[in-house]
Every structure is written in C-alpha cells, then in structure tokens.
C-alpha cells in the first residue's frame, strides 16, 4: 500500500514525540528518517522506526539530549551527542561543520555517544544549498569481516559525498563500504534467492551464496569480495570510516560498536561512548571562484553522462541518479510500504495511540 | 641485480639535475621516487624515471617551476604547480596543508598544473611525524571505464590515508580505486598469465581475462569489477578523487587528463591545466587530546591484528604491513631492479653522462 511522504512523516514525528522528544526534535528526526523512504532506501526509513523505539525502551536513547561541542579548533569540533537519536545528532553536527566552513573555508566534525543516523546522504546534502561539498560517514554494528578474517569487526560503514553543480544534477554518492548493504540481503531473503558470491561468507569464513549467511554466524564482505578482487580496499575504506567516526571522537570502534538491534546487548567493556559519525563541509569558493567550480562540475556531469555505453539502453549514471528517480516517482505516486512494516507500524500506533 | 637505496637515489637525483633541476629540487624528487622502490611499489619508482625524462623532452615538465598559492582561506589553498614534476609539487602542497592544520586544526590543498606525483603514500605519511592524519589523492591518465561504460574516463586515481599511532605500527592505506592497479597487470603480462575476471574489460566493454586488454583498447575496471559486485562504488571513489583533485583546483579531469606516456599527446582542447592532486592534514589534537587518540589507535591496530583468521597462517593485516615488510627487507638486502629497467637506466645514464 502507498502512503504520502506527509503521512509517513507525521506518523514518525508523533512516535518520536510519544517517546519524549519535543516537536522540533521529533520533526528533525522524521525529516531524516522519511527522506530515506522518499529516496528509495527503504531499509533506512520508516521500517526502522520500531528499532529506534526499542532502543529507547532499553534506555539507549535520550529524548532530551544536551548535544554539545566538547573540543574544537577554528576548523574542527568534537560533539558529544548525549545518547541522542543519530537522526537528531547528525544534522546538528553537520550544521556545525557548515558554520565552521563559512568562517575558515572548511569544517570537520567528529561525533561520539550517538546512535544510528539514517541515510548518510541526508547529512552530506545539507551542504549543497550552501555551495559546499558535504561529506558524511558513520560506523555501525559489526557485521563485516576484514580480508582473511572470520570475525565480524566492522559495520557496513557508509560514506556519502555531495557535490554541487550549477544546472546539472548534483553528484550525490552514498555507499556502504561492503559489496552489498545489509538491506540488499534482506530483499534476497524475502524472495528466497541466493546471493552472488562476493557478498557474504559463512561462519568458517568461506564464500557462500547463502543470503542468510550473516544471520547464521557469517559475515558481510568488504567491497571487492575477496582478496583477488581487492577486498582489502573495502576493508581499508570501512576502517577509515571507523577511525574518523570513533577514534577521533571517543566513540566505540570496530567490534565494540553497540549493535542497532536492541536484543543484542552492547559489549560489557566499551572503549568509548555510543557510536560515532564524521562530517565535513568544504566551501567550493575556498578553492576557486564559485561560478568557475560550478560550471566545471556541470561539464564533468555532462561528459560522464555521455560516456559511450556498452549497451545503449543502459547508460552510464551519475551518483544520485537512482535516488533522484525514486524521489520523483514517489513524490508523485506515494511510497509503497510492505505489509510486514505496516504490521510493525500498527503495533507502534496502538502502543502510543497514534494513527497512520 | 640489487642496488642500495642510496645508489638509486643518487642516480635519480643526478638525472633530475641533468634535466635542469637545482640540487634541492632534484633531491626532493628522488626522495619521493625511490621511496616507491624501497616500499615495494616497483611500478612507481626508478622504473618511471625514463617516463619523466620523456615528458621533459616534450616540454611538459618545467624544471624551474614557480609553485605558488593562487587562492586560499585559513584552512584551504589552491596551488598552481607551474608544470613542475608532481614529485616536487606534491610534498610542497602537503607541507602547506600541514602548516594550515597547525594554525586552524586542518589544512586542505588542491593542486593544478602538475604531473605524476609518485606513490600517494609518500605525501600522506608526511603528516605522521606531526601527529596529524594525512590524506593524499591524485587523478591520472584515463584508463578506467565507469560502470556500464566502454570508454576510458578515469585514472586509477589512488587514495592514501596515513594515521599515527603511539607504539603500534601506523595505519597507512595507499590504494588505487580500481580492482587492480596497472602495475599488477604488467606483472601478469610479463609472465604471460591471465588476469582474474573483474580486473579488465575488452574494447567492446565485455569482461575479459586478457592481461593485455587495456593495451588493446579495453579498460581497467573500477573496484568491484562489475555491477553485481558494486563496481559503481569504485567508479564513485575514482570520481571523487577526480573532482577533488581537478574540479576544485582547475586541472584537467576525466578523459581530459594528460596521459603520463609521452607518446600520446594531451587532448587538443583541455578543460584545465595539467593534472591535479588533493591533500589533507588533520591534527589529531584538533578533535581530542593527542595521547588519548594515539592510545586508542594503538588499541584499534592491536585488536584488528588479533582478528580470528580464516587460516591461522594468513593473519588479518593492518594497512601498510606489506610496504613495511618490503622496506625492512630491502633496507637490508637492497632493491632488485629488473634487467629491462636497468637497460633504460643505462640509456639515460649514457645520454646524460651519469653512472649508476
């Protein structure tokens, strides 16, 4: 069944208020959450609402957080999110990065004591209207084995980079540093299909096509899939995200990252506070006149769109095209919500006396 | 035959002086070039010396460059390398990034009008002794097809990130954003071996195991190899390097990047000047007290080293382990130089009256 953005946003906002957020914070959190549904990243949208509520129930979410800068220089800040929803801490931290960039050209913010922050791209895209390049990354529940390892040591640790243009569509990359995001596996699980080799390994660390391999004690594989296809590079990228997000800020890193699923307790002896994010903003006119940059980005995008394709019906895409297409389609026709998700929302609605 | 670091360094320095560099510049260029041989990245070391000389012969290298900042803010700079060797422009630009970081926490420098800058890791590692995180990237000759494309649009566009530790080995990543660097293909070509699928596509854009596929009109593949294994993520990474290095600075980007090989002329209507690099330096104490950061990095490295391995004889590595091992071995036993490379060096030596 399809719902409008406004319907889902209003429902999520009311739930966030029901667990103690004021209207401003609840609106901000719903903005981030439902942007995922609008942009076609269903795994990170309204389907996660129940998960956030569960974290609140086990007292891992503070609905009245005092989010504050605990360390700074003219171009940097470290923020203690005070156990806020990452959906709330993320935009606040990105705004600090943007404000610093206005002052000294660039701003870089590492965040500790946070939780899952929704889609990475929401935060990086905040920079676009300021004619800045936006960067956003976060660490996440350990599900990924490093090359040669069988232990889960890293999250899917996404990186998003948003780059403004003048008239062309902006460049908006938003990617997990694994071959496949966990959401893609869930699709295969529902359809009872196998996964391609290179996505998952089993409990012994051997390649498997079992789409349930991660649930059965295996691990997601870093981008590349195996050593011959350079999975060490995916491992490197996930590690950089982990270190920038958590070792710089004082959050938990690697296998210590508290899991999003509330039925697994965080490890007993944490090395930091909550999980971590990292944000950056760079004014394009800190490097060259703004118009020059934007015109050349237009030319970059136009030229890459014109790349001679292997198959003329399947043209080369610009990062962000998929999400732009989904947003256009869903703004018009509404956002489809799976029955299993509707059941969860019904349950939440009953509990907090909110109607969808 | 094996040579010492000093022998190769002295030879390279004399050649750089013979083509017009003063002693200081020639020494700096040799420092970068021969560090590649020492660290086991043979494709980027003394084997390239002849290539740099050829670029000078076709007047694409300025041996007396006026490298200068053309645009800046407290945390950023754009540098015009004045057609210097990238081996010379790179360290100068990285030093500007470090100096800015000392002032305002971080420094970010984009460079135009440059040439090939050797191994990316030389530059990022300059930050380590300052207790900073170093970042280095560069665009390069177009050899890589974007996902779904058959045209060569991007270089192997490497990214290096160096992160300091207290007592453990530092984290030093240095990776091409393709599945395999071109140097790995050259090894297979010499041994007349096939390449794994996912490294190369042929002229029609179809996957091939032909290690000569790129030379025969095909292309290198972005990290991931094919769409099912997320090659669009490698394409994204290579694109970000291209944009940060060249659209920010005013260098050539994408298919306009001037090729390193001097027998292919740069394209007739360039969109910028030379090729581009991008450097960053972040003071770790711009985010939290230095000792805290370094101790947690030690713990990060130690914990990842202890990851349960699939095969106990093949432990999980920390980025930089390979190069550290090579450097230790070659410092002791010397640097092996292939006969084909020695022939080139002999020819260069004869031309400029320099002996190896």
Automatic annotation (TrEMBL), chains A, B:
Gene3D superfamilies: 1.10.1530.10, Hypothetical oxidoreductase yiak, domain 2 (3.30.1370.60)
Listed InterPro entries: Mal/L-sulf/L-lact_DH-like_ah, Mal/L-sulf/L-lact_DH-like_NADP, Mal/L-sulfo/L-lacto_DH-like_sf, Malate/L-lactate_DH-like
Source taxon at top rank: Bacteria
Keywords: Oxidoreductase
One Pfam family, short name: Ldh_2
Signal peptide: none
Alphabetized SUPFAM superfamilies for the sequence: L-sulfolactate dehydrogenase-like (SSF89733)
Family under the similarity heading: Belongs to the LDH2/MDH2 oxidoreductase family.
Protein name, as recorded: Ldh family oxidoreductase
